[in-house]
Amino acid sequence: MNERFLRELAAxxxxxxxxxxxxxxxxxxxxxxxxxxxxxxxxxxxxVVSAEEIxxxxxxxxxxxxxxxxAVNRLEGPYLVIDKPEGKNYKVSLEDLYMxxxxxxxxxxxxxxxxxxxxxxxxxxxDSCLKKAGLVYDYEPDSSSYTAVYEAVLDxxxxxxxxxDEKAIYIELWEPSELYSRILVVDAGxxxxxxxxxxxxxxxxEKDINLNIVKYLKKLLDKERIKVYYTRLEDEKIYLNPRxxxxxxxxxxxxxxxxxxxxxxxxxxxxxxLYGTKNQKNLAFSSKDLAEICLNAMVKGSNLPNRGLVKGxxxxxxxxxxxPAALVETGFLTNEKDLEYLIEEKNQKEMAEYIYQGIxxxxxxxxxxx
Length: 370
Description:
Blueprint lengths: L2 H16 L1 E2 L5 E4 L10 E3 L4 E2 L1 H6 L6 E3 L4 E3 L6 E5 L7 E7 L4 E9 L9 E3 L7 E11 L4 E10 L4 E6 L3 E7 L1 H4 L3 E6 L17 H16 L5 E4 L9 H11 L3 E8 L9 E5 L11 H16 L3 E6 L4 H4 L5 E8 L3 H7 L2 H24 L2
Parallel strand pairs: 3-6, 15-16, 15-17, 17-20, 18-19
Antiparallel strand pairs: 1-2, 2-8, 3-4, 5-6, 5-13, 7-10, 7-14, 8-9, 9-12, 11-12, 13-14, 18-20
Helix pairs in contact: 4-9, 6-9
């Protein structure tokens, strides 16, 4: 069986079964009950072997995926290693702090503080992926147990696969584009003390409407086989650089930033979508292509006026994008009719649905071009 297919399947299973959003914009993944080395294990070629065969060493190294139970005979580099001080099976939780280029690894249900800072290291001395590491312990009084929490600061954003053998836990680090066939970055504009635009009475802020729409959009995207990164999922300020730098570093297939509009005149209303032309020459599917699809989906569904496409090279996150990127303006908070539409929960859900439809169509069109 194709090894990459198995790994992608495992990654999808990991996200589908265990993915929940953490407050630090990461993906928190808690392993299912770790497979026991006293039971039969399926190898990546489909063969089922017993623990006795593994212990004899006839199969060489055997690393068991902690989510799927499927084993491989080698790990792709680079990877992190956490020594098991007592060779037991442990429950492991990962929190992907991708906006900070770091990974939080929690080992739960410990009887004592047996893990050490030195127990986390890279699989090869030549690997430069690990920039900094730390270890703290949390105590759970209800269960009288400890949780060892490692934080690994990495050199860039990775996708993860978690394996173990009798000696250690292994976190295999992958280029996200090598593990996932579709990568999307969704950006809720503004946040925190950056409120964006606002209604004339200052009652409604853009940052809140943007975030609401993105949260509804997430519920729809969670059902798809798409790896989605969110620049924020709470009310916190994120600077412009990290937003588009994330998308460029990931080599994301699409980047969609959700906003509301404003104008000096109260008559201005409707949807428009900004796109860029810089860094787009080698793209078979461009930012303008994405913008047009999103705009058509928004105005068709909402019946808001179509204000057309706007070239936005002077907008930082659009002008700096090296991947197809669109900044959608869902309506004007300075217009009474648009404001009435955008502050209604059902309409925010509908707008999320229209953006979702645009994204899915864009993926289909993009794949036709390659």
